[in-house]
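pls design
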């Protein structure tokens, strides 16, 4: 077994362990259902037995006077033949005639369904077994069969003779229902069904659930794991980083800022794109908060809203709507310095998306784009570009050659492995340098030391910040 398979099995085990409550619940339901059924609803049954010995006169069949292992196996195989004879219309009709007076309305189908046959300890002794809801009826059916069947078996199978060893006696006690035992069987069945369902869900679920899902499946590193604020508000500004944000969220963006700046140390190009595989993964929120964090760190930052089809930064930062922006610059309707919103935050300027053009990808691929970004970098230390999702439109791929690289946002429980793989393939084919992933989720793993000692320490309380 390879390492990858071992990791997958370990994750499956953890996945099931986290949902152990479902196994317990289904096992409990299975136990309760089977226990209640066998205790309150399952009617008593009675099993009667009769035995007889068959002496074969057919030399092609087993001669029980001179038996060996092969003969006994042949004898056991003959049981199916005997059962067919016993359940034949000829035998059943005679058995019904014998029982009708005592049990009016009894039918051949009922008798046939209640009968079975077996070999006693792999010998030539045959056992007729009858199970019904009446002790006397079970015994009477067995006895009627052993009275009628031998003659027909001798005729059909060419047996030498059949001797009845024991006639059936009415059983004194009903069959053991044992509701506790049946309940345990129900619990096992319920637990197994739940486990099977969880395994199926695990195999069918391609969502990214934790950071390890990324590192195990893909090459680019996780540049930072960012904690998503647990807010029910639909107001985009509610997720914007500020001085009142929890320290653990601020620090997660600070870590991403430092890792990003480290990757740009030896690069002249300081333009970085932020994108994702599909929509809804939080790339616009990440772009805005990374820009704020870098500006708080003393960098002169320009955030460009290049998602011209579905602009988001205006709602986040609250600058006037319907203002000239990036698209208007690209079609030479205005100068970039006139369109930049300079009073958004200290050290932070935002270039709006502008009016929606019909051909954003073509505009982003123009040679003038490289000159525009180069000119902007003379005035800013860092340029962050909020791009559309790679799998939705080709805009990020069109501008990729003009950037130092791109960050790909992956949202916990939302992003799909297959979509990420498709996006990375497209990026590789167009030469986009994916610097790394930004893992974005509410259950991001926190370092226990910092989480328990620093974040909860009075020194870092809001009172002292």
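designed seq:
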């Amino acid at each position: 077994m390879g390492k990858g398979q071992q990791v997958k099995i370990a994750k499956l085990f953890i996945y099931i362990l986290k949902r152990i409550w479902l196994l317990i619940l289904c096992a409990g339901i299975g136990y309760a259902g089977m226990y209640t059924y066998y205790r309150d609803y399952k009617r008593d049954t009675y099993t009667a037995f009769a035995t007889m010995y068959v002496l074969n006169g057919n030399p092609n069949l087993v001669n029980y006077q001179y038996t060996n292992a092969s003969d006994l196996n042949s004898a056991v195989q003959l049981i199916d033949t005997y059962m067919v004879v016993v359940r034949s219309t000829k035998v059943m009709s005679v058995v019904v005639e014998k029982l009708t007076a005592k049990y009016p309305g009894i039918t051949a189908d009922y008798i046939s369904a209640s009968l079975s046959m077996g070999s006693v300890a792999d010998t030539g002794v045959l056992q007729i077994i009858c199970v019904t809801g009446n002790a006397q009826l079970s015994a009477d059916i067995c006895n009627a069969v052993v009275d009628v069947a031998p003659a027909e078996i001798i005729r059909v199978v060419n047996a030498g003779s059949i001797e009845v060893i024991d006639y059936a006696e009415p059983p004194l006690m009903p069959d053991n229902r044992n509701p506790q035992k049946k309940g345990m069987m129900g619990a096992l069945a319920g637990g197994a069904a739940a486990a099977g369902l969880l395994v199926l869900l695990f195999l069918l679920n391609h969502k990214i659930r934790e950071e390890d899902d990324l590192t195990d499946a893909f090459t680019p590193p996780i540049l930072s794991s960012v904690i998503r604020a647990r807010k029910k508000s639909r107001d985009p500004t509610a997720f914007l980083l500020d001085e009142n944000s929890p320290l653990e969220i601020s620090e997660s963006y600070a870590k991403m800022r430092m890792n990003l700046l480290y990757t740009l140390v030896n690069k002249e190009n300081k333009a970085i794109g932020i994108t994702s595989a599909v929509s809804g993964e939080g790339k616009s929120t990440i772009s805005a908060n990374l820009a704020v964090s870098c500006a708080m760190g003393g960098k002169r930052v320009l955030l460009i809203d290049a998602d011209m089809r579905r602009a988001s930064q205006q709602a986040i930062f609250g600058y006037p709507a319907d203002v000239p922006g990036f698209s208007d610059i690209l079609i030479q309707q205005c100068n970039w310095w006139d369109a930049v919103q300079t009073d958004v935050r200290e050290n932070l300027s935002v270039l709006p998306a502008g009016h929606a053009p019909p051909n954003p990808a073509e505009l982003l691929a123009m040679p003038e784009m490289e000159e525009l970004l180069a000119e902007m970098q003379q005035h800013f230390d860092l340029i962050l570009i909020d791009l559309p999702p790679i799998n939705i439109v080709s805009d990020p791929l069109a501008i990729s050659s003009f950037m130092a690289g791109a960050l790909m946002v992956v949202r916990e429980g939302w992003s799909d492995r297959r979509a990420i793989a498709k996006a990375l393939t497209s990026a590789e084919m167009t030469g986009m340098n994916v610097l790394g992933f930004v893992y974005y989720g509410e259950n991001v793993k926190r370092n226990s030391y910092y989480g328990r000692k620093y974040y909860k320490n009075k020194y870092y309380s809001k009172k002292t910040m």
